[in-house]
């Protein structure tokens, strides 16, 4: 992901004093903020470790401490072999395959696993937690593969690959992307329960959810900006965005989106030019008139998903778990259903936000519906094709997003000899949401690009100051209407401006903060 224009990123994040927030996860995962383990967290880990050591030396049957794993939970492990059991677990479970997972995803899942250690519910020694922090701070990223997690019993294979690197056996990439045989920090011998605690969490899917929420909140604002530009360029009305209309159906996200549109369109000479009694257009098309309803529903979905993420970020996901009264109890908190559901829900909202954006772009390019704009916004239609194929690119992206919106969480393939007979597929839901968020960025960027060209073609009528600021930003990087040019680099320029936050900053330089 690109660097972002906006509030400064913290230089360090403390783990263990309180649950991490989404912005803190992004700071460490994407911007490489340093990680500090709090003194209180060290005390909590030491206390939990003492409980585990007491149980590990006994004959009690404790899952993953004195027994095997999964369907092998009925096999008792003698005291002398219990440390070896943990190393065997990490090696056998590091069974991922396929392409490498992105650095920011691996860093997010390592940070979140570290946070769970610091709760004092896992029994992991402080030395293990310190090694996770050391790898993050040195920007040594374990090699994790795309396939291997079913989103139940935790993101087992991805977390096992990280654990393998932590104990000194697995490959890592350094800050320059070079592949190293190991982290070079020496080997660590695992003790009872530690191997299981390193891999039994929802950290991968949760990390990807946190990153997606951060990006989708920014893109929700971009969607309002691109909508405002298209409304102007298509000679639409701003009357349907009036606050009194949205108070009669007071969805929070809808009201926020409509308020943004009113701010963005304030002072538009283009909109004012057809506001009189002689205007023959009674109602705009749905893609214009219903934009706050669709974008608002997406915003409310993002907020719902954020509430689930906040609960998960405040949780200690492990099995078995060390309780305050000294018991070690098996549980099912590793099941990824709560996270998987909202990952799938977000993929649906993301696809619909892209779909309505593509419809506005198509309308801008069609002379039968664009209220006087040239075909495909071309300089010389016929000789020039203008932005015709840019809309094809949008359509291809939206079609892909519709496939990505098919829920992963309704699938389940039993594993471990039917012991783990219902799984969440939350990791898969998170992987496809990442692709969908990237696609939405590109779809909105193409709408911004097309609408800016449409506004140029409305001259001498002036757009609103806020949308004019966005057009001016684009013109610093991408030329306006004219003869056909190579479009791909121009699209990428605009994608960069959207993803780094420059488009939003330009609009807000006039409006002030947008929702």
TrEMBL record:
Q: Which CDD domains does the UniProt entry name for this protein?
A: PAL-HAL
GO cellular component, as recorded: cytoplasm
What molecular function does GO assign, one term?
Answer: histidine ammonia-lyase activity
Compartments, as annotated in UniProt: Cytoplasm
Q: In what pathway does it function? A: Amino-acid degradation; L-histidine degradation into L-glutamate; N-formimidoyl-L-glutamate from L-histidine: step 1/3
Query: Mind telling me which Pfam families this protein's record contains?
Result: Lyase_aromatic
Q: Please report the name of this protein according to its UniProt entry.
A: Histidine ammonia-lyase
**Species for this entry:** Kineosporia babensis
């Amino acid at each position: 992901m690109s660097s972002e224009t906006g509030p400064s990123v913290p230089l360090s994040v403390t783990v263990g004093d309180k649950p991490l927030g989404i912005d803190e996860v992004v700071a460490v995962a994407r911007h490489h903020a340093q990680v500090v383990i709090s003194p209180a967290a060290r005390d909590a880990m030491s206390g939990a470790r003492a409980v585990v050591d007491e149980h590990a030396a006994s004959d009690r049957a404790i899952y993953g401490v004195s027994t095997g794993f999964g369907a092998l939970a009925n096999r008792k492990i003698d005291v002398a072999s219990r440390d070896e059991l943990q190393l065997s677990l990490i090696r056998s479970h590091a069974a991922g395959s396929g392409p490498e997972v992105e650095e920011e995803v691996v860093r997010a899942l390592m940070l979140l696993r570290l946070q769970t250690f610091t709760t004092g519910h896992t029994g992991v020694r402080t030395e293990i937690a310190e090694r996770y922090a050391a790898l993050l701070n040195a920007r040594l990223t374990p090699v994790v593969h795309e396939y291997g997690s079913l989103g139940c019993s935790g993101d087992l294979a991805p977390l096992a690959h990280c654990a393998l690197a932590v104990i000194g056996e697995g490959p890592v990439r350094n800050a320059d992307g070079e592949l190293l045989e190991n982290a070079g920090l020496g080997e660590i011998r695992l003790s009872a329960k530690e191997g299981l605690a390193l891999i039994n969490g929802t950290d991968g899917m949760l990390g990807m959810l946190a990153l997606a929420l951060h990006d989708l909140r920014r893109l929700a604002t971009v969607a309002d900006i691109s909508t405002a530009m298209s409304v102007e360029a298509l000679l639409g009305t701003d009357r349907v965005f009036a606050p009194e209309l949205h108070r009669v159906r007071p969805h929070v996200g809808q009201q926020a989106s409509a308020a943004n549109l009113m701010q963005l369109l304030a002072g538009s000479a283009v909109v004012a030019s057809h506001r009189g009694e002689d205007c023959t257009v009674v109602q705009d098309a749905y893609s214009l008139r219903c934009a706050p309803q669709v974008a608002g529903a997406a915003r409310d979905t993002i907020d719902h998903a954020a509430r689930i993420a906040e609960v998960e970020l405040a949780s200690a996901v492990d099995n078995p778990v060390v309780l305050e009264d000294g018991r070690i109890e098996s549980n099912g908190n590793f099941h990824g259903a709560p996270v998987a559901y909202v990952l799938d829900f977000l993929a649906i909202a993301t696809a619909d936000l892209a779909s309505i954006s593509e419809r506005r772009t198509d309308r801008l390019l069609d002379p039968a519906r664009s209220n006087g704009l040239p075909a495909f916004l071309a300089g010389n239609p016929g000789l020039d094709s203008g932005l015709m194929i840019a809309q094809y690119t949008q359509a291809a992206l939206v079609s892909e997003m519709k496939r990505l919106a098919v829920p992963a969480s309704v699938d389940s393939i039993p594993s471990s000899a039917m012991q783990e007979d219902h799984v969440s597929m939350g990791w898969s839901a998170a992987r496809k949401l990442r692709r969908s968020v990237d696609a939405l960025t590109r779809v909105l960027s193409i709408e911004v690009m097309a609408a800016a060209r449409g506004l140029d073609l409305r001259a001498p009528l002036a757009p609103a100051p806020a949308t004019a600021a966005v057009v001016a930003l684009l013109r610093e990087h991408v030329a306006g209407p004219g003869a056909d040019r190579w479009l791909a680099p121009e699209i990428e320029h605009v994608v960069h401006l959207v993803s780094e936050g420059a488009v939003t900053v330009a609009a807000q330089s006039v409006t002030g903060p947008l929702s």
